[in-house]
Model the fold of this input.
Amino acid sequence: MKKLLLTAVICLSSFFAVAQSGYEITINLKNCKDSLAYLTFYQFDKTLIKDTCTTIKDGKIVFKGKKKLEKGIYSLVSQGKAIYFDFFVDDNNQKLEMKSEASPNLAKELTAMNSPEENEFFRYVEFINGKNKDFQTFKQNAKLLTKKDSLALTRKQKDIEDEIHVYEEKFFEKHKGTYIGDVMNLKLEKTLKNIPKASNGRPDSIVAYQYYKKHYWDNVDFKDDGTMRNPFFHVKVKNYFDNVVVKHPDSVSVEIDKMLDKTDQKSLMFKLLLAHFTYTYETSKLMGFDKVFVHMSDTYFKTGKADGIYDDPDVVQKIIKRADKLKPLLIGSGAQDLFMIKAEDFGKMKAMGFEDAKNSEEMTNVYYKNVDTVSKMYVKLSDVKADYTVLLFWDVDCSHCQKEVPKLLDAYNELIKEKKDIKVYSVYMQHEGEKYLKYIDEHKLPWINVYDGAHYNNAVEKYDVYSTPVIYVLDKNKIIKAKRIDADQLKTIINAIESENKKK
Done:
């Protein structure tokens, strides 16, 4: 009897294992004209295809697989790659049946046959769509001719936003602890409701900000990969680093470490966040934020924590190499010295044979044959005495240089008139001496005009000059204060440096 009972239990367990494995999404979409449809899902900043239905009959679309779907927000996507609607999948609703009509009333008619929670999500989407439609109708009917009309539109927008917020808060409270509750939590803004007054009688913006930042990530589970499979998580991460975190590379680095510490290092969440932050700050247009990229390399890539992040293992070494190149060029670092030759000495260098050398071996022979003479001809960057040194790398034939160099000359002349102690160490990146000298003469460049006549410096690598022009600003101690700036930013940067020095 015991043996029979045990056999029955095993068989029953096997039955449930089979019954609960895999997924089956059935959608009856009336009036659907498509011959195929896609099942897609959100993953951080991308939308990926999970499955394809290639046999649609009478609007019946079926997606079926042997493995369970990972929990997340999924979409039914048309043959033309347009989204019909979103729905959620978690561990409890792998077998879904939904119906609607491929018409403007799709959201209103959308129903899940076997999931009350899914229907509540659909009604939420319908509510949002309705409110957006109400606002657009109001906006179209409003005659924005007076200030009063404009204020009415602003009030209407605020009223609708408040209604949506109340709805979403109630939705979250009702579904707290479920996947769709977690998704709604990502969309909710955690703002302080009763902001105290500051000394000036106005709402205290500092207290409001501190509350907002402290509670920004409340109830967000960074150890759950499902957290990133929705359209809200990436937006929330981006907003946090763009608008909430103090705009300073050190502050950003601290916040990145805090966030990654909340994840499981082997998780997809860790991998995607690490890749996102690394790419974002390697390519950042904000001056000085390459320091964050260097931090990512030192903290995660050099320590092995990034191993396995990329399909190509060489990517890790490329990132490390790139960061190591940038490290000496970070804002606040001492400028690497340069040993250049004056433009007017081009003829002398050519006579020595530097311009005729056909390969590195011949160049080395020419250099050591003339090393004593050349050493006395060097104009070193470190020997330039000035409160401000502008380090310019450029090329006469570069179209962008032809626009920027005259602007830089104008800014330089204006600063000289203002009695600023400033010099320009102008490095021509080619070796066509006659062309360089002609440009200097025609444009009357009153700078320290030099070039790498002895082929000694490799400025391309040393100062990361992968395109021209490149402009650095150094202080009197040759500390890098600004880099990769436009010429018309020079005066603003000099004034900012002076203001900073006065505060100190």
Remarks:
- The CA atoms of residues 133 and 371 lie 77 Å apart.
- Confidence is low (pLDDT under 50) at residues 1-19.
- The two ends are 89 Å apart (CA to CA).
- The first strand starts at residue 23 and ends at 30.
